[in-house]
Amino acid sequence: MDAAIVTWVTEHLRHPFLDPVMIVITYLGEMGLLWILIGLLMCISHSYRRFGVYLLLSLAVGCVIGEGLLKHLFGRIRPVDALQLTLLIPHPGGFSFPSGHSCSSFAAAISLRYANKRWGNCALILAFLIAFSRLYHGVHYLTDILAGAALGALVAILLYRILFRFLHPSSGAGPSV
Fold first, then answer.
1. Is residue 171 part of a domain?
2. Domain count, the chain
3. Mean pLDDT of 79-100
4. Do the beta carbons of residue 11 and residue 140 sit within 8 Å?
5. Distance between CA atoms of 112 and 54, rounded to whole angstroms?
6. Mind listing the pLDDT tens digit for each residue in 44-83?
7. Is omega for the bond preceding 98 within 30 degrees of 0, making it cis?
8. CA distance readout (Å), 5 to 45, 55, 57, 98, 142
9. Is pLDDT of 170 > 80?
10. What is the 3-state secondary structure (H, E, C) of 87-139?
11. How does DSSP classify residue 13?
12. Looking at the domain assignment, is residue 173 inside a domain?
């Protein structure tokens, strides 16, 4: 079913108008750089510093688990290689499961949502677009994307509870997600 979904998306949803848009969207999630930059900018602000550190920590933990452990544990070949799909972007290295773009995007979006609901909602929309762009490009299966998104969200939620609820319960940590 995973192969059928990615094949259908690459054969039926790709369009010359959307191709450059999806290339830009996928690059926004590259190595989590956008999210790292946002986290660093938050660290500059006194009122958002702890959320900036929390966002960066969420990214780091998600990366260690997803890129450092799970990708090597599962060793799943990317759909572009398994199904011989045409690439619109440079061939990504490494394995497919879970999606690092999805993991970092959802870890950051959930972290941002705890800091500020409006920012978080905008980040969630971007996270969905980045995740979908990976399917659009044929570099991840749907299950890779869902697992990456779930991992990133779970890491962000658990770290929030540890950092703000258990370690500093009276710190007025901000809104709940």
1. no
2. 1
3. 90
4. no
5. 9
6. 999 999 999 999 999 999 999 999 999 999 999 999 998 9
7. yes
8. 43, 32, 33, 16, 7
9. no
10. CCCCCCCCCCCCCHHHHHHHHHHHHHHHHCHHHHHHHHHHHHHHHHHHHHCCC
11. T
12. no
